[in-house]
């Protein structure tokens, strides 16, 4: 996989929050519009083809009441078909954010998403604006230059924080299984944290959309974030350049281990703008509203 540090990339405006998908690579639409459910601050879409297999009911989710919570990473499981082989390679010790991050197709555009640890092993995190206008979602973990080494995973439900503002640009999608396996069992899942200190050193990964899929690679940056003007839930990093449309929804993560790629996601990249004389990458930080939607997703 080709990975580029953002400090060497060309500055591109991220005002465009998504890019169009060529007709040849766009995800096919489902038969019928998604079923919509709204309650409180949660807005949920149900894939009509999977309506009998999802149990996401907004309004039944719980709140943390401002308390911090970190859910530890999920290790990828060994291939059950290889279980009887004495020489089968063991599963990776930890989930790497480079393997769990991937390309998200929305049915009409592209974004970035990441597999996060969840009770059902099926949840990916992305940005709300990637999901609101979508009608069919496909996800390819570890996507690079048009290649999807683990295949494309379809969805059964999706939901987002249904309150306005950059600070609430947060969504979670529940994937269907692929060949009988949950996505977190195949590639692992990064940890996920809520109500965490905002000034922990952090990184962002995104996959900008390009004119050609062959030019689509993960970009990353790092820095010590500051609180943005949309508070209490935006975190900004000032040295991230090159995160253009298509990178939206990429993981904002802390506790990155450069030896194994493990990390804990605490927000998602949503846009970029000039503020106080600098160019900032803007992320929505996970607080109680994010946990409410996530908790519904992980039990759906």
What general form does the structure show? globular
Counted by DSSP, the helix tally is 4
Multimer state: single chain
As a percent range, the share of helical residues equals under 10%
Radius of gyration from CA coordinates: 18 Å
Mean pLDDT: 84
Q: What's the order of the H and E elements?
A: EEEEHEEEHEEEHEEEEEEEEH
Give the number of DSSP strands.
Answer: 18
* Most strands sheet: 10 strands, mixed
Q: How would you characterize this protein structure?
A:
- This protein is mainly beta and 300 residues long.
- The chain is built from 4 helices and 18 strands.
- The strands form 2 sheets. Strands 1, 4, 11, 12, 13, 14, 15, 16, 17 and 18 form a 10-stranded mixed β-sheet that branches.
- Mean pLDDT is 84; it is low at 4-30 and 80-93.
Reconstruct the topology from this structure.
Layout: E1 3-5, E2 35-39, E3 42-46, E4 69-71, H1 97-100, E5 101-105, E6 110-115, E7 123-126, H2 128-131, E8 138-141, E9 153-161, E10 171-175, H3 183-187, E11 191-194, E12 202-206, E13 218-223, E14 226-227, E15 234-237, E16 251-254, E17 264-275, E18 278-285, H4 288-298
In short:
It contains 4 helices and 18 strands.
Which keywords apply here?
globular; mainly beta; 6-stranded antiparallel beta barrel; 300 residues; 10-stranded mixed beta sheet
């Amino acid at each position: 996989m080709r990975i580029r540090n953002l400090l060497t990339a060309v500055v591109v405006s991220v005002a465009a929050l998504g890019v169009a998908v060529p007709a040849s690579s766009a995800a096919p639409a489902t038969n019928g519009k998604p079923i919509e459910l709204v309650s409180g601050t949660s807005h949920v879409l149900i894939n009509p083809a999977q309506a009998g297999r999802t149990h996401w009911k907004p309004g039944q989710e719980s709140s943390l009441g401002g308390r911090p919570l970190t859910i530890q990473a999920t290790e990828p499981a060994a291939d059950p078909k290889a279980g009887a082989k004495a020489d089968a390679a063991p599963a990776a010790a930890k989930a790497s954010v480079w393997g769990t991050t991937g390309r998200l197709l929305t049915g009409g555009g592209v974004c970035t998403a990441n597999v996060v640890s969840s009770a059902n092993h099926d949840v990916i995190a992305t940005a709300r604006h990637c999901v609101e206008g979508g009608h069919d979602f496909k996800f390819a973990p570890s996507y690079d230059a048009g290649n999807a080494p683990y295949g494309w995973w379809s969805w059964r439900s999706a939901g987002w924080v249904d309150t306005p503002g950059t600070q609430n640009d947060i969504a979670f999608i529940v994937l269907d299984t692929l060949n009988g396996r949950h996505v977190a069992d195949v590639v692992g899942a990064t940890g996920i944290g809520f109500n965490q200190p905002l000034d922990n050193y952090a990184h962002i990964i995104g996959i900008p959309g390009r004119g050609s899929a062959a030019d689509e690679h993960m970009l990353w940056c790092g820095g010590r974030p500051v609180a943005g003007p949309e508070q209490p839930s935006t975190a900004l990093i000032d040295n991230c350049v090159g995160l253009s449309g298509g990178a939206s929804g990429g993981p904002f993560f802390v506790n990155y281990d450069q030896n194994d790629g493990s990390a804990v996601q605490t927000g998602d990249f949503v846009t970029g703008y000039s503020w106080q004389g600098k160019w900032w990458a803007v992320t929505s930080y996970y607080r109680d509203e994010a946990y409410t939607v996530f908790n519904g997703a992980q039990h759906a």
